[in-house]
Amino acid sequence: MKQKGIAMALAAALVAGSLPMGVGAAQFSDLNETAWAAKTITEVANKGLLSGYQDGTFRGKNGVTYCETTTMLHNVLTKGNALQNIPATSFSMYQPVMNNYKIPQWAQYGVTYCLGAEIMTPVELTKFMQNGKSMPADRQSVAMLFGKALAKKYDVYAARDAKEYRDAGVIAKDALPYINLLTKLGILSGDENNKFNPYSQITRAEMAVIMNKTFDLLTNEMSNTGKITEITNQDGKYYDVDVNMTSGEKKKITISDDTISVLTKAGKELPVSSLSVGDEVSLVFNGALLEKIYLLGDEAGVQKKYDMTGYISSIKNDEVRFESENTGEVETYKFDSSCTFYQDGKKSTKADVKKLVEENSNRYVYAGLTTKTKQERKDNGKLENVTYITAMDVRIQDEYTSAGKLQYIKDDTICYKLTGSRNEQIVSFAKGCTFYIGEKEASLKELQKMADSGDVYVKVSCGADKKATKVVMAEDTFTDTKKSVTYTVKAFTEDEIRVYHGGDTHTYEIASTKDVSYYTWNGKWESCEFQAAERFYDYADDTVYARINLNNKGKLSEIYLVDGTAQREAAFDEAEESERKGTVASIKDGKLKFETSSITYKLKEKYKTTSPNQTLIMNGAFTNSLTLLERMANCDDLTLYAEIKANIDNEVTKIETRLTDAKGRIVKYDYDEKELTIQTEDGSEFRLETKKNPETGTKEYEAKDLGTTSYKGSEVRLSFDSNGIVNQILVTDKSNGIGFTRVSGKATADGDNVKIDGKSYRMSSKTNISSKSFNYDSVYTIRDLLADSSLKLYANASVDDKDFVENLSLKMQEATGTFQEYDTGSVQIKTKDGEYVFHTVSKAELAKACGLDDVDQLNDWEGKQVTLVFNSDGIVSEVEK
Prior knowledge:
This protein is α+β, with helices and mostly antiparallel strands and 881 residues long. It is 18% helix and 39% strand. The chain contains 15 helices and 48 strands. Strands 29, 30, 31, 32, 33, 34, 35, 36, 37 and 38 form a 10-stranded mixed sheet that branches. Strands 39, 40, 41, 42, 43, 44, 45, 46, 47 and 48 form a 10-stranded mixed sheet that branches. Helix 2 (38-46) packs across helix 8 (204-223), helix 3 (66-79) packs parallel to helix 6 (139-150) and helix 6 crosses helix 7 (176-184). The two termini are 59 Å apart.
């Protein structure tokens, strides 16, 4: 079955239904119980999204289980025509996992889709069932599933400015971006006190609302899409727009900023003036009235809708002093006589904009400029290009953002070369500065480690004191303009320029040579006319390279030409061959991607796998092959690190890899030959090289014992040295026929035993104990914790057929006692039975959740009775007096 086939098969099976059936487009008899959602409940029933029960009720106050949630999500995506293609082998691949966690047959299609589409991982199935019973889902978990599904279409990072809920401090960090996204899209909202209530059980009525809004978002976008073919600006007051709809209908609409909202897919509002011919749009109607226009194309921010973006320092007479956010260069531009002005997307005047700039001298005035270039003859008789502003949209910001190539990052400062410029910025970190690698929050040390892996780029936001408040790091540039791509020029005439990059050839038409600005590199950039640029190309001694820039209408506006590789490196500050290293995200269809980069690298069909001049080196593996490389890269149980060299077209010329982490089951271990074969969860087998005597992390057995039959089939976690050689084999579950089962639930003491979900199990010093909540691993301390009535714990355990606990993972849920001390990353309390130290979230998060300016103020609470609130990971997220 092809990939499309599996999606259709799943959809057909699911629509057949497994949820409560019997009432379709019906009048439910109990709608008065959830009157606030009655209309929506009727709508979802009529749309076939959710059914009632045989007795004619809907039971809106009933809870929804995790299994039901995946089924409901799959149903909405099916009917909203938004299903992703997943591998045809998904169902057979995940069948053993679902059977292991006792997922009911009726729910397995929805669960398979969520696993195959990477909306969730197999680990999350641990909370679906307990003792054969489907477990209820909370609001946070449902939001993560729906949010991850929609994040395939909508930019989750651009939704970070969604409104904050009053209880945002107790929302799990990994759930917050998806809750923000759904809030921004209008799918989620808080209660009357603006609380999200992440751990409250979600009801069928609430689920009906979420499903209905998700369905409307997907179908509104799909059924009313089209492309803008013409825009007429009626003196900046309103616009006449022609749209060719996908259905074949031609629509003519008249819009203005006062009547219509123009939004990106992530919900970011833009001025109507940002619409361009060729834009793919979705028209959202409220009845017959057009209410919103969504831009559906790939988003690189508002930048793409303007010729320039940056910061205004002053406006005097008919000129503006402007600093580009991309290059850091400061220029003075003139206003065109017909220039239109906007403030926050609303029509304004030059006088009002000037006043805004003057009144906010201590803040940042961010602006998007639409420009045109005219050739004017100067006093010396030479023609020069002069840039005029035809439209300006301004807004006030408390932060200043710039981006560029990292030079260095220290504990207190960062230095980067601004994009498209040789200017360097050196910025100090503000107190509480946050750090990100891509969309994921990280520590400063993680950024410093990534900086050591090769060339990286940063986007830095600064406050009014010019100190960095936020730093985002990535392996590729933050701009998405053609000017940041270096092309090989294949042809250059007065009609067109034909260029090549990354295996693709692009042709850009030159409507008029006077409409394009030309620059050639002769030790520095020099402006010239077309005839001089053409001679530069025709008489070049070497390959000619170019960077080009398009205006906001998609028309060619600038061409930069360089003669030869050496000159290209000087002009564009780039080498002929780049190096990149990091963790591999995937290798598919001959294309390699790293985890923290959007750049795709093309693999050659063949590499030299033996010395000398070896170009494919797989350290720690017994064979070097592209097939094995692809299997390793795409296996969820392996973490593959790679160092590559790539040419200007992003084609990998040399690749060296090693594993940094792995888990699986022992198939065979030859201690003398230093050879370990493991089987991963997807059924793949990998033969790996080990050191002579790998560590085991315990004194209970030695490495050579792992080669015996008693350990065959045991689950292991592998660690590797810097050469990709296995240096530790840690047995995590000795499932060799003894009959291990997994149990979970509320954990308390039962004498020297542990009681989990009401049943008593034996444990001893041989029990492997782990927890994210604390550092205690002694069985005696754990018994004290379990016996303390002031503490609430949750356990996951693997138990043998004699009720002995082999592995015990504990998570704190609540703790009450007398506050003793806060130290970085931990808090200590005293109960009537003992004193305990628990791990906390970051300083900034904890201070915010506790309503404090500085988290160290917690130490003023010494001796006071407190309750510790823990997040879903078992980490202290709030301290309540």
